[in-house]
Write a structure and sequence with these properties.
Shape: globular
Number of domains: 2
Radius of gyration: 19 Å
Largest sheet: 2 strands, parallel
């Protein structure tokens, strides 16, 4: 399914996939000998590597350790270009609203979470700007997407 999604004309093939079960997917890809996957890196997110995958899991350590992919690290080696554990962190954050939303009907539920995410994005952008970071960096010319959050 992934290959089909990124084989559509005009779609850019990704350089890397990062997710919690990358080890299993990488094994399947290697067994398939499909040339399409040869140039795509596959790694486990940092949180899963530290907390869920044993250091004795040789395959995962050898082929899916994010530290083995220098393109994922900052040029000075002090950190990562992006937060690979954001999905886990977002699930924890969303869990804080579970008691409020569990009995909501779909329309109210969607509206409530939509607003919570919008407000969180505004606050996150403000926090990053206060730290003199560049939260609206886009590698393509999409204009100023910050206006969508204000």
């Amino acid at each position: 399914m992934t290959k089909a999604s990124f084989s559509v004309p005009g779609v850019t093939k990704p350089n890397h996939f990062v997710y919690d079960t990358a080890c299993e997917a990488k094994q399947q890809v290697m067994k398939s000998n499909d040339e399409w996957w040869r140039t795509i890196g596959m790694s486990v997110d940092v949180w899963h590597l530290r907390n869920k995958h044993k250091t004795t899991h040789d395959f995962c350590q050898r082929y899916c350790n994010p530290a083995a992919f220098p393109e994922l690290k900052l040029d000075d080696g002090t950190g990562w270009w992006f937060n690979t554990s954001i999905a886990e962190q977002t699930n924890v954050w969303l869990g804080g609203y579970h008691s409020m939303v569990r009995e909501m009907l779909p329309i109210r539920y969607n509206f409530f979470l939509d607003e919570m995410v919008r407000i969180r994005n505004i606050n996150t952008i403000a926090t990053l700007k206060a730290k003199d970071l560049n939260p609206q960096y886009t590698p393509f010319n999409f204009g100023n997407i910050a206006q969508a959050f204000t």
